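Ticket 4471: requesting a sanity check on a complex prediction with (5S)-5-amino-3-OXO-hexanoic acid. Repro inputs:
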Amino acid sequence: MAKIILSCAITGSIHTPSMSPHLPITPDQIADQSIDAAKAGAAILHLHTRDPVTGRPSARPENFMAFLPRIKAGCDAVINLSTGGSAVMPLHERIAGPMAAEPEMCSLNMGTMNFALYPMLGKRTDWQHDWEEPFLRDSDDLVFKNTPRDIEGVLRLMGAERGARFEFECYDLGHLYMLAHFRDRGLVTGPLFIQFVMGVLGGVAAEPDHLVHLKTTADRLFGTDYLFSTLAAGRQQMPMALVSASLGGHVRVGLEDNLYLSKGVLARSNAEQVTKLREMLEGLGHSLASPDEARAMLGLKGPDQVAF
Ligand code: KMH
Ligand code: ZN
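Returned structure tokens:
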């Protein structure tokens, strides 16, 4: 069996500080949890940043630079910076940090979509920060804008001009056809790394038969010129990771996608989720790729070619 690339998405821009005391917010918290996740087996660290005081999603270069050198000094994991930022940010704001840091990898969201977080409001009333409740509530009228022009811009600025390769975030079948369109125009080249994103309200639900159909479609469009990984938001995180691995795919966990370790039990760290998945995968006979093995599989430029 081929080795499995485990990505860990450390903090994201979906969950808010009141939802878990373990969600990393400050540069030290993000760096510590990233290094621990890498030590536990994550080959790739998918990173967003937050305002260190309020915890609100941010994509400011100075917030990224406050932890990137520390993470690089503390582990050899591949650094993958989000260009999705938060769906509430315009694209120029979302890519400011990645443009300054010039990472080996960055995410690229393959279509415009709804990104509805308001079901997470639940019955909670004890918000720590003023921004949290309206941030979630207003997502009933939120468009996560990723038009072909936006995608082409990120490919040029981050790929052609800065040598990054991409985690292509595909939330639905149409996003695969958009990726094939850019391949046909010669703007993306293999090996492509597709992240199937399941369970976001606005994208496809986290069901095994949907994943099989996404993979079958990607096989038809990209043949052997791609690798896929799967993330499922919320409680389907671990089950879908195991389905992904069983189909020959790679896996992603992390507090960006799910705050829990098991039903009703908050994960105390990203490393805890990495360790849990690692043990399940190894129990099934799989083994994890090291960061350098992941670099070779994905054709990355190397950690000495970044700007941090
Ligand atoms: N937050 C995930 C649902 C990005 O950072 O570009 C998708 C994601 C997007 O990771
Ligand atoms: Zn992300």
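Notes from triage: The first strand starts at residue 6 and ends at 9. Leaving this open until the requester confirms.
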